[in-house]
């Protein structure tokens, strides 16, 4: 057993180590500066306090992007020096963000240990490679992102840090081979356990119900999805499937789950080998960046695909996001969560007892609100950031939640879950087609969405992203929009001067959220203009970029009239888009004549 000593290394604070919407994300060249990562990790240990760190079991893994392997070794050595008892690492350092959450909540070590927290190494949907982004965030013992109370404390610590602790004499761990390595430090034993990346996550997702009766008591163990039903769908010659991991970590889980467990053809998987630079692409599952899938599904404007699959999906770098597509058909993430919620009880065994409640982030369309109303479910609107759903789930108030930013998930873990969303859609498709796989026409993704709109109405929805614009210009634009809110009459006059066919604004504010569980208040969570006919314009600055600023403009319009629900969404929203761009003086403040991404 190798021994190590603890070294105290002097350091000075770096500016700007404030975690954003989901952890600290910066260019690799920033992270590789001497002491940069170390300061943040030590600040996290300091913020957590010795009682949460000494003797702890920590998961350390991520999406495998450039610099992850070095970071894993550094964090492991710092964990050892800070008195952590065990570090758990997914094989090759690969665990999707939802898999980390599952491991924290579910995995039991050979010695009966349970994880108490996790460092997740990812910059999510941001590109990777030596000139691109790296990121790190801390998740708590419930498997969810650290709440603002902790991230603020981490940040405070980064501004005063003077030293960090690191193990000297601890060799680099071989993370390519599973197994436990043990070491001895000043505070006792330290173990590094490298384990299979998918087993625990798969165990959670797979529905296995068996009851047995013992001493007049019956037990039933079940998990989430009915795998045999999905298997039947995937093996039907009528059905075809395509999954694009954009070279992110979801590819590792996808091969095990879709191919080995569910019997999908290996050729259904695209870009499923994780790469440190995501193959040079932007691992963001949307219509702009998931080009290959978009073309395969018959949605490319430049390429015509004669026979697209029935169902397609993509993931982001760390596998927590999802984009769902039907044959030549795009499902907005806001519709996706509403449709999953509307069908969950019938189609997904985990929810067969009913939903505790549903939630969405503020900029997400109100499609979910209507489902909640129809089904008489508790409903919550939270600020952008998955961490806000965690308290509701821990308090048993919410089962399903989703965001317009391609995040969907449930209370099985405390992160959004890209593969869960795909399995949820496959379950709905399997349920709707349970009698059609032999004779009869397949109920398609498009059919399911159109049937949903016919019942609940349609929320036309689009998001314009202005990425990496001048930060001062972006701030000025937001200040201008806040100032305008002081006179609704003035706003309405301006709007009528732009488009007379757009309804009146009835309320305008900056979104503020009071957490119903712990009473904490989050202010300045996006600028809202709410219209008489239910339309909304929302403006926010992204909290996940690593350079400049990204302005997000969210545009939504509700249509109840079933004769008007089949329009092209960009066409239907054109008047509101025009109002939004002119009202905000977008071009003036950003010097951009068009957004970088439209979804
Ligand atoms: C994170 C958060 C999400 C949020 C998204 C976009 O996702 O967990 O809740 O919606 O960022 O945030 P923003 O609009 O501030 O860029 P991820 O997938 O990047 O971890």
Automatic annotation (TrEMBL):
Transmembrane segments: none annotated. Its EC number is 5.4.2.2. Its cofactor is Mg(2+). The keyword Glycoprotein does not apply. It catalyses: O-phospho-L-seryl-[protein] + alpha-D-glucose 1-phosphate = alpha-D-glucose 1,6-bisphosphate + L-seryl-[protein]; alpha-D-glucose 1,6-bisphosphate + L-seryl-[protein] = O-phospho-L-seryl-[protein] + alpha-D-glucose 6-phosphate; alpha-D-glucose 1-phosphate = alpha-D-glucose 6-phosphate. Residues 17-164, 232-325, 334-434 form the Alpha-D-phosphohexomutase alpha/beta/alpha domain. Pfam families: PGM1_C_vert_fung, PGM_PMM_I, PGM_PMM_II, PGM_PMM_III. It comes from the Eukaryota. GO terms for biological process: glucose metabolic process. Gene3D superfamilies: Alpha-D-Glucose-1,6-Bisphosphate, subunit A, domain 3, Alpha-D-phosphohexomutase, C-terminal domain. Residues 1-20 are annotated as: Disordered. Signal peptide: none annotated. Keywords: Carbohydrate metabolism, Glucose metabolism, Isomerase, Magnesium, Metal-binding, Phosphoprotein. The keyword RNA-binding does not apply. GO terms for molecular function: metal ion binding; phosphoglucomutase activity. Monomer. Catalyzes the reversible isomerization of alpha-D-glucose 1-phosphate to alpha-D-glucose 6-phosphate. The mechanism proceeds via the intermediate compound alpha-D-glucose 1,6-bisphosphate. This enzyme participates in both the breakdown and synthesis of glucose. Belongs to the phosphohexose mutase family. This is phosphoglucomutase (alpha-D-glucose-1,6-bisphosphate-dependent). The lineage of its organism: Eukaryota, Viridiplantae, Streptophyta, Embryophyta, Tracheophyta.
């Amino acid at each position: 057993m190798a021994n190590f000593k603890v070294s105290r290394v002097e350091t000075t604070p770096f500016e700007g180590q404030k975690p954003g919407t989901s952890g600290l994300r910066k260019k690799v060249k920033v992270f590789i500066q001497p002491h940069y990562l170390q300061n943040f990790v030590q600040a996290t240990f300091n913020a957590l306090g010795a009682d949460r760190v000494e003797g702890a079991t920590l998961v350390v893994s991520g999406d495998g992007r450039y610099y992850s392997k070095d970071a894993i070794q550094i964090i492991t050595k710092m964990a050892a020096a800070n008195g952590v008892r065990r570090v758990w690492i997914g094989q090759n350092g690969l665990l999707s963000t939802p898999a980390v959450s599952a491991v924290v909540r579910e995995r039991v070590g050979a010695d009966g240990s349970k994880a108490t927290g996790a460092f997740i190494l990812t910059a999510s949907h941001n590109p990777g490679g030596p000139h691109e982004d790296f990121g790190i965030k801390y998740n708590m013992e419930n498997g969810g992102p650290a709440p603002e109370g902790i991230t603020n404390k981490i940040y405070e610590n980064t501004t005063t840090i003077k030293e960090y602790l690191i193990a000297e004499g601890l060799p680099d761990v071989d993370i390519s081979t599973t197994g436990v390595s043990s070491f001895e430090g000043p505070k006792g034993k330290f173990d590094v356990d490298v384990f299979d990346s998918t087993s625990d996550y798969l165990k959670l997702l797979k529905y296995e119900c068996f009851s047995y009766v013992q001493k007049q008591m019956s037990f039933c163990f079940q998990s989430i999805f009915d795998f045999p039903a999905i298997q039947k769908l995937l093996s039907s010659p009528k059905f075809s499937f395509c999954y694009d991991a954009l070279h992110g970590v979801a590819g590792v889980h996808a091969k095990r789950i879709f191919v080995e467990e569910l019997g999908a053809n290996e050729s259904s998987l695209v870009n499923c080998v994780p790469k440190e630079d995501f193959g040079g692409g932007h691992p963001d599952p949307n219509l702009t960046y998931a080009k290959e899938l978009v073309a395969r599904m018959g949605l490319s404007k430049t390429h015509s695909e004669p026979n697209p699959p029935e169902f397609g999906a993509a993931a982001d770098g760390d596998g927590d996001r999802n984009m769902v597509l039907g044959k030549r058909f795009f499902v907005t993430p806001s519709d996706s969560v509403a449709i999953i919620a509307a069908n969950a009880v019938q189609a997904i065994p985990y929810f067969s007892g009913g939903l505790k409640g549903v939630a969405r982030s503020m900029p997400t369309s109100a499609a979910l609100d209507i489902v909640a109303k129809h089904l008489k479910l508790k409903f919550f609107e939270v600020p952008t950031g998955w961490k806000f759903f965690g308290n509701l789930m821990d308090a048993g108030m919410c089962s399903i939640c989703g965001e317009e930013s391609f995040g969907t998930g449930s209370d099985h873990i405390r992160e959004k879950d890209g593969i869960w969303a795909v399995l949820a859609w496959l379950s709905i498709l399997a349920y709707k087609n349970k009698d059609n796989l032999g004779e009869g026409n397949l109920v398609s993704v498009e059919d399911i969405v159109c049937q949903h709109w016919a019942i609940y109405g349609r929320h036309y929805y689009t998001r314009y992203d202005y990425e990496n614009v001048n930060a001062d210009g972006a701030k000025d634009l937001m200040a201008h929009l806040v100032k305008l809110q002081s006179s609704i009459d003035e706003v309405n006059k301006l709007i009528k001067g732009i488009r007379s066919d757009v309804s009146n604004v009835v309320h305008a504010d900056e979104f503020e959220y009071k957490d119903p569980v712990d009473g904490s208040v989050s202010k300045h969570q996006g600028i809202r203009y709410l219209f008489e006919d239910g339309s909304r314009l929302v403006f926010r600055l992204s909290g996940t970029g690593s350079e400049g600023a990204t302005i997000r403009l969210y545009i939504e319009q509700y249509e109840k009239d079933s004769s008007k629900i089949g329009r092209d969404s960009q066409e239907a929203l054109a008047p509101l888009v025009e109002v939004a761009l002119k009202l905000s003086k977008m071009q003036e403040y950003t010097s951009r004549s068009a957004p970088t991404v439209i979804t």
